[in-house]
# Entry
Amino acid sequence: SYVLTQPPSMSVAPGQTARITCGGKNIGSKSIQWYQQKAGQAPVLVVYDDSDRPSGIPERFSGSNSGNTATLTISRVEAGDEADYYCQVWNSRSDHPVFGGGTKLTVL
Amino acid sequence: QITLKESGPTLMKPTQTLTLTCTFSGFSLSTSGVGVGWIRQPPGQALEWLALIFWNDDKRYSPSLKSRLTITKDTSKNQVVLTMTNMDPVDTATYYCARTVDTAVGGNYFDYWGQGTLVTVSS
# Structure
């Protein structure tokens, strides 16, 4: 089965840039999505199709995807960005979605 | 405005069958390309996809849980029902339903999520 690998945790100071990675074999050929999940809340889609943002998501959230790594970039990090972030792709071979293990972002 | 809401039992005993209902509004499950999926999250753990049903009644199941899952839809009621047999304490989790739409290159993603419902399995 297709595996997505994320770092379990990372920390960043307010105002800095956070880059959260998601690794997978030839992930650059797939469409990747990113979800933000704050404590006690349901996940929220923040990036879809590699780099598009749903309405209402700040421009500080951006995405890229190439080769074997996709990246969610959060610029000018704020305290409110502290959350778990999950990547997701569609496994075309088995024809179902796959989630990464999640990255806990701590804002120092 | 698109909303989804999960409903079902909060406490179950081992070996029982779980039935969860997702009631949604703001979209139709008869629209081409649209689906509804179920995702669960054990306490403190990652998201795990369970099942999907599409507008054309096509269905997908997690390979590891396929033998225990059934997903159905009632388009007239705007509901999707998930059943999971032989519940075990390890199935304790928050269960979410979410709308799914097509990606640009094939496959689907979840653009709207319900609030989730915690199901605890304990004897």
User: Anything to note?
Assistant: Chain A is about 0% helix and 45% strand. Chain A has a mean pLDDT of 96.
